[in-house]
What does this fold into?
Amino acid sequence: MPSTLSGLLIFVVVLTPGLLHYIQRRALSDQPQVSALVEAGTLTTVSIVTDLVAVGVFALIRWALPSHTPDPSALLLNGVNYAAPRLGYLILWAAALLALSCVLAILWARRPGVLAKMPIFIPALIDTSAWVYEFEAAPEGTRVYVGCDLRDGSYIGGYLDWYNTNIEEVSDRDIALVAPITIRRTDGEVLATESGEADKEKSEGGSQSLDFGVVVLSARDIATLYVSYLNT
It folds into this structure.
């Protein structure tokens, strides 16, 4: 860790793009639990890559407009003597390059448009769970309908209302389905709602209407999930 104030400032500034990248990824989906070493390595790698790209952009601008950009050679050779008279100018350029690096890190995390098709930007398979991946893949204008085969042999289906986005595929996670809900019990009895409002009257065909609009299931009771994207 840096032992001086200036070293700490440089350390924080350099790693800011990597931190923003990590925060953006966490905002998009839960991330797997990794060791502190792997997490630090990821932050550092993202920051180094985006900082180098920002420096490359500066080099191009310096090459095209040498009289309108800071002189890195003079700054290295003369230090304070060069920086003192134009401190605000240098800080403005440094802030602009840092902002560019941060934007690149955020774009890397979000992978918009063509970036999502480039191999280097394709997310690793461990980036999210199957639940998150499939439920969030619903095309615009559709709703997620989930059918669940339960371990006791029964079946429950309904529109997805809420689910636990825990990255770990554990049994202590829940999913909530809303009406219309269909339940088929192990004895073959079918219960169903035809709309969001419960109807207690029995319908034709042996189906009985439910008097509730939401059902919550635990992952430990689910054997298989069937996911459909239905037009709204």
In short: Residues 5-125 form one domain. Residues 196-205 have pLDDT under 50 and may be disordered. The beta strands are 142-150, 155-163, 174-184, 190-192, 207-209, 214-218, 222-231.
